[in-house]
Amino acid sequence: MAITHNIDSIIKQMNLLEKSALPQAVEGALKDYGFYWRQFIQTDMKRTYSQTVPFTERSPYFKVKSGMGRYELLLGISDITRDATGFECFVRDGTDAINREAVF
Predict the structure, then answer these.
(1) Paired residues of 74 in beta bridges
(2) Residues 35, 103, 89: CA angle, nearest 5 degrees
(3) Is the pTM of this model over 0.90?
(4) What gap in Å lies between CA 78 and CA 56, rounded to an integer?
(5) DSSP per-residue letters across the chain
(6) Contact status, residue 89 vs residue 96, Cβ threshold 8 Å
(7) In the chain, what are the domain boundaries?
């Protein structure tokens, strides 16, 4: 899921000082929003599932991308990671099957 915005009409009405502070303000706002949703998803996981492990609780993530006047907030849930030795760790979904996907 990606959240984007287009505020070109607002930027045209700003003075130079306001325009210079805008990139940090937008990026900070998106980081705050991403952190909020990450915590919300983690809390919802704990409430929905009877047992969660630390890997599951840490799986929601957010990332702010910026550049060329464009800012994006990406929200997601990681399902596979590598351990400290570089080997793939697989996630169980509660059934007997193991979700196996290639990690590049």
Answers:
(1) 2, 63
(2) 80
(3) no
(4) 9
(5) -EEE---HHHHHTS-HHHHHHHHHHHHHHHHHHHHHHHHHHHHHHHHHSS---HHHHH-EEEEEEEETTEEEEEEEE---EE-TTS-EE-EE-SSS-EE-----
(6) no
(7) 2-77
pLDDT tens-place string over residues 47-69: 888 887 887 788 888 888 877 76
Cα torsion angle, 49, 1, 59, 23, sign = negative
Q: 12-16 long-range contacts, Cβ below 8 Å, gap at least 24?
A: none
Q: Which two tokens stand for residue 33?
A: 């929003």
Residues in Cβ contact with 99 at an 8 Å cutoff, skipping those fewer than 6 apart: 79, 80, 90, 91, 92, 93
How large is the average pLDDT for residues 18-40?
A: 88
Contact yes or no for 29/21 (Cβ under 8 A): no
Confirm if 55 and 77 have CB atoms less than 8 A apart: no
